[in-house]
Amino acid sequence: MLRKVASRVSLRSRERKLQLFLELIEPGPETTVIDVGVTDAPFGGDSTDNFFEALYPWPERVTGVGYTELDRFAEAFPRVRAVRADGRDLPFADGEFDVGFSNAVVEHVAGGRAGQRSFVHELCRVSRRVFVTTPNRWFPLEVHTLLPFVHWLPPGPRRRLLPFDDVLDPLSRKELAALFPYSVRVINTGMTLIAVGPA
């Protein structure tokens, strides 16, 4: 039951993010987009992973980057170029993409703020503009689990309580903005922070 509720909340949030992306970035059929943080999964059912590739109007202009095998991703999204790489060391030229997109990934990057900064700087290096989202540290529910306040705990107790082994280092508005090599506009939707840049 909780998983279905979380899935519905996640889908609504992700549809809203895509709408904001389309409104703020104003991409067209020629706009190249890199999405860093795809998973090896299709979209649908209880999974809202890879929503961007499933709902974006021009998937043939998207390069999806994930750090795991991407066989199922490539099968589910045959019009999207799939690349396996670490988001902190992308195998692309400076400014190769018009837009860099990353949804709810930066809070999972290992290495603390330095690792997150490296991830964001790489996305900025390969893209002329960026759209990066992350759960809002100060929203009372931890959005992956819908548990209240658990993400406000120090890292040790937080890791013991969360039901996954992943890194989770949530960000405030100020912390998110500080990761970028240039000034960004940070939009607070309540549950989510969205950085759009350069401002």
Order of helices and strands: HEHEHEEHEEEHHEE
* Known CATH architecture: 3-Layer(aba) Sandwich
Mean pLDDT across every amino acid position:
89
State the CATH class. Alpha Beta
Total tally of structural domains: 1
Question: Regions with pLDDT < 50 over 5+ consecutive residues?
Answer: none
Structural class category: alpha/beta
Strand segment tally: 9
Radius of gyration: 16 Å
Level of helix content?
25-40%
CATH superfamily: Vaccinia Virus protein VP39
CATH level-3 fold name: Rossmann fold
The outline comes out as: globular
Q: Approximately what portion of the residues adopt beta-strand conformation?
A: 15-25%
The span between the termini is 41 Å
Strand order of the largest sheet: 3-2-1-4-5-9-8
Largest sheet: 7 strands, mixed
Give an account of the 3D structure.
The chain is α/β, with parallel strands linked by helices. It has a single domain, classed as Vaccinia Virus protein VP39 (Rossmann fold, 3-Layer(aba) Sandwich), CATH 3.40.50.150. The chain is built from six helices and nine strands; from the N terminus they run αβαβαββαβββααββ. Strands 3-2-1-4-5-9-8 form a seven-stranded mixed sheet. A two-stranded antiparallel ribbon has the order 6-7. Strand 6 (141-142) and strand 7 (147-148) form a beta hairpin. The radius of gyration is 16 Å and the shape is globular. The termini are far apart. The mean pLDDT is 89.
